[in-house]
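Before the break, one more example. Copy the sequence into your notebook; we will annotate it together after we see the structure.
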Amino acid sequence: MGMGGLIRTVILVCAALVVVGQDGLTHRLTLPVNAAKPPVIVVGFVGGFVAHDNMVHSGVQLAAHLHASHPSGVFVKVFENRRRENAHREILKILDTDHNGKLSDEEKKEARIIIYGMSWGGSETVSLAKELDGDHIPVLLTIQVDSVAKMRQNDQMIPANVGEAVNFYQSDGLLRGQPKIRAADEKHTKILGNYRFDYKSKNIKCDKYPWFLRVFAKYHTRIECDAAVWSQVESLISAKLPPA
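Here is what the structure looks like once it is written out:
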């Protein structure tokens, strides 16, 4: 690991000391009952060591809003970025509409999956898509927000099972997002764009975030609490969902 990677890891590890103690609001997001056809599945990954139910963070707020606006026909759940395998198992369980413990080709074709993630969650977004590619399960859309690659992960290359992918990032400070994602197969995956945000000249208030993040990872934190960014994320997701 290079010095830059070590610094980023130290920042994220230290952030755990101040994030874990925050109060979180739990949203129990339940699966709509529909044996004939699975719901649209929206999986979110939070960054660093943020808890899945910490409502300070925009990714958690987004999930709660999507759940409230689509009470049926859509399954929404947020995971800590270290819980990718839990998310994978949850998806397979939902797609198994005949409950026989094995996905048929038809059940796989019915999959409508959207994955989004912030920071390390962006890295896990791509990794989960790759796992689903190995299962021959399509993904409608992946969204990365200031994605930071974990060790032995590649958050740049989007697998061929993903229909569309988009990347939002900033390039300042110690924690910088992945500047460019690309398709493993351009015939199957459309990259909607790599959109850079500049926070040196744009002051975003992130008062509810830990002081440590606001000081040592301020630009990384600003993109996470930038309502304009997350409004675009929500619009992209909502365009794939059934009418509310």
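The mean pLDDT is 89. The radius of gyration is 17 Å. Try to locate both features in your own notes.
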